[in-house]
Specification:
Length: about 300
């Protein structure tokens, strides 16, 4: 067994919602998705799955990501154990998905063949995609598993995850019932801004009124102060002119660079009504570089964890 660089692992549910085929340096455990009665595997025709899911969502039929297959998790970890002594397995919070639980069970079954650190990301689709890319890039530079985990923890304390949805706030779990979706669609002039709170591990209402997309910047300034963030906005169902207004509002908040606005075909988390915008505020490139140097500084680190 090689004792080389740690390997970053995730599951297929994560990448299905990210509009990319893969993340360099990240191993992916396949997940099954049921869309309109057909079961599809995440490691086959990812773009086709997203397209079919998009069409199903348009018809009011959300895709269902099936429970994790423990055999697939074990198969992936056993394969990696032939060359990797340490794996960092990154998944959604256990309240959103069961992948982290399966990873922990496999960690017990794998010992002592391989050390598996399970990291539950306290963010949504775009934020998890960002964390995975940063973790893989740092591991490729020769960082230890402890340093990669430290970077993930630091990044999450420097991130804000927000969600913008049409309709008034309603009491709801992550899985939005069909009746609630219909209720939301009856009030398109109202918007609700939600904040994913990593401490409470819950999504909380920030504010609701008309056209929040046009005044998000002032809300952020009033609640979180002067911002040194880069903004990523992922959306579906909103018009492009609404997203242009949101980007302009973010610019007025004092962000150091223009927001990156990108449409997504479908979401594979159970949090969203059909239209949604995920607003992710992450460290700027300069701040990210500073955090990377911090966790790699041997004086600060005082040895490998």
């Amino acid at each position: 067994m090689s004792h080389s660089l740690p390997m970053v692992v995730t599951d297929g549910r994560v990448l299905l919602g990210s509009e990319i085929e893969d993340v360099p340096g990240v191993a992916v455990i396949p997940r099954d998705v049921r869309i309109r009665g057909e079961t599809m595997c995440s490691d086959e025709r990812a773009n086709v799955i997203r397209s079919v899911a998009r069409d199903a969502i348009e018809q009011g039929r959300s895709p269902e990501v099936l429970a994790p297959d423990r055999a697939r998790f074990l198969e992936t970890y056993l394969r990696l154990a032939e060359s990797q002594s340490h794996v960092i397995s990154v998944h959604y919070l256990q309240g959103l998905d069961a992948a982290a639980r399966e990873a922990r069970i496999c960690r017990q079954l794998m010992q002592p063949l391989q050390l598996i650190d399970v990291y539950e990301a306290k963010t949504l689709e775009g934020g998890l995609d960002f964390l995975l890319r940063c973790a893989a890039a740092l591991a490729a530079e020769g960082a230890s598993a402890g340093q990669v985990l430290a970077l993930l923890r630091y990044l999450e304390t420097h991130m804000l995850t927000l969600l913008l949805t049409p309709g008034p706030a309603v009491r709801r779990s992550w899985a939005l019932p069909t009746s609630a979706q219909q209720l939301v669609s009856l009030a398109p002039a109202i918007e609700t801004l939600w904040h994913f709170d990593p401490k409470q591990q819950a999504i909380l209402v920030v504010e609701q009124e008309r056209k929040l997309h046009a005044r998000l910047g002032e809300i952020l300034q009033s609640r979180w102060g002067r911002l040194r963030y880069a903004a990523i906005v992922r959306y579906r169902g909103y018009r492009r002119d609404q997203m242009d207004a949101l980007a302009a509002s973010l610019a007025r908040a004092g962000l150091p660079e223009a927001a990156r606005v990108e449409p997504v075909a479908a979401t594979f988390l159970p949090y969203a009504a059909r239209p949604f915008a995920e607003i992710l505020l992450v460290p700027t490139e300069a701040d990210l570089a500073r955090l990377q140097k911090l966790v790699q500084d041997p004086i600060w680190w005082k040895g490998d964890a």
